[in-house]
Amino acid sequence: MGLTGYLALPFAQHALIAGTLIAIICGMIGPFVIIRQMAFAVHGAAELSFTGAAAGLLIADNPVAGALIGSVVVAGVIGSMGDKPRERDSTIGVVLAAGLGLGVLLLSRYQGFSSAATNILFGDIFGISTGQIYLLVALAVGVMAVMGAISRPLLFASVDPELATARGVPTRLLGIVFLVVLAVTVTEAAQVVGTLLVLSLAITPAASAQRLATSPLVVTGVSVAFALAATDGGLLLSLGGSTVPPTVFVTGISFGLYVVARIVGPLLARRRYAQLRQARAVEAA
Amino acid sequence: MSTVPVIELHDLSAGYGSGPVLRGLDLTVEAGEFIAVLGPNGSGKTTLLKVLLGQLTPSAGTATVCGTEPREALGSVGYVPQHRGFDRDLPIRGRELVELGLTGARYGLPLPSRSARSAVDRALDAVGARPFADIPVGLLSGGEQQRLRIAQGLLGDPRLVLLDEPLLALDPRRQSEVTAIIDERRRATNLAVLFVTHEINPVLPVVDRVLYLVDGRAALGAPSEVLTTETLTALYGAPVEVLSLNGRLLVLAGEGATDGLLGHHHHDDAHDHDHDHDDEPKGRGPWV
Questions:
Q1: A241-262 pLDDT per residue, tens
Q2: Among all residues of chain A, which has the CA nearest to that of B74?
Q3: Which end of chain B is more exposed for a tag (fewer CB within 10 A), N or C?
Q4: C-alpha to C-alpha distance for B215 and B212, rounded to whole angstroms
Q5: Which residues of B touch A282 (CB under 8 A)?
Q6: How far apart are CA B80 and CA B57, in angstroms?
Q7: Secondary structure of chain B: what % helix, strand, coil (to 5)?
Q8: What value of ipTM does the predicted structure carry?
Q9: Between B248 and B280, whose confidence is greater?
Q10: pTM of the complete model beyond 0.90
Q11: Cα distance from A156 to chain B (closest Cα, Å)?
């Protein structure tokens, strides 16, 4: 069966819908993850969703619900424990290690198919049910709405926390809200690429975008575009008659775009430096 | 123009869990006044700013800004926080950073605001920052970043501006430039200025009064009254000598160490460190 044949099948359609939604929300949060130095939080939230998923499997045979509830709880706990990156990182490290240990215990008690466990780790984009699509649409719309609402104050709080506080921005609360949004996004993304590879959608596209653009909105736009290219591109390549899992293509495209950005970025930076020298010359004159 | 003082502190005490940092401070600042706030680290300078920004509630006494509670007056107060450099790859341009000072608290997407544009342009022009307004802030020099900060602080025509060590990390020429920008603005708009610094010399020509804090106690008055051997010796409770050298003031405390009132920084001078760690976080100890 060729690509067009597959595209008529529900599992492929579900995969593309899910991938597109996840790419958009990952692309949106990525720039904030980088500005707020939260790459480790993404990694932690993703790995802890494994524990949540294992608990969900064991208790209700529903790994997705378990992962979602688990990651939101953990995000709330981490968020209320400290706002400074250094404090936060050690807290995440501690919670992460304890949580993973618990996950291993939970999984060892699970009597069902062991593939349910590897699906959590490496993603199962072609196994998404109609019910999961509805849930995903609801969550994605929720994430987009929240990010749309808090983007500006969150940007202010991220680049300029002292002044933001003085201007009445609830920086602490916004930090917690963002962490919860991040946890939900990461848990959803884990369904596509797996908990181990979430960074390829939540960090890599934004890191590439940051090398190419300099305005927050443009960076976000490029980041979303790159996440979409990686996810949908990877899914289509995989459907186009390959035996390689889609995760490989998704992470591969994402990384490829990053390499291109690393090469093109310095050329653009040279132009900005020239602009700066010119500005200084104007000022000196 | 209203005749209500811009700042009124009456018998103000404020501090944190470990006890009051400011004790019984009285201060009235009128519109158009330029006040320099001096004093060693831990003397209450930052605490005073926090009270004026409504972030810290006085433990005793009263604080009003523009005739009202500090928290209610935030819209009339400009603030330039102590400078931390921006990361080189921070994806934001000067103009966008300055604009956040005006619109950043509003919910929504950070779309460029048409209504803010002219105010932002004027603020950029006032500090001569227009030529580099479209360059990412992380690429700019410390002085250029500081001018953007000041543009941000003066945005929205405040009646009071609080500046926390705005001369830090600037070379002497930039220090006078920044001081001149602030001075010009207060003369033009009758702005009250509270200028926290540990270097008095760059601002000495424009300062009306000096508030010198030591251990939460204060001396207040014209520079010629406060910055004297007698006043500072009484305030520190230890021998302090003030010398005038070619029109610059030099404060000698303890065994010949300067207390940071020279025109330059001394962070790398080993002998200076016991006395001058003004811009270091508190509690890192005298070995810093």
A1: 778 888 899 999 999 999 999 9
A2: A167
A3: N
A4: 10
A5: 131
A6: 21
A7: 30, 25, 45
A8: 0.86
A9: B248
A10: no
A11: 6
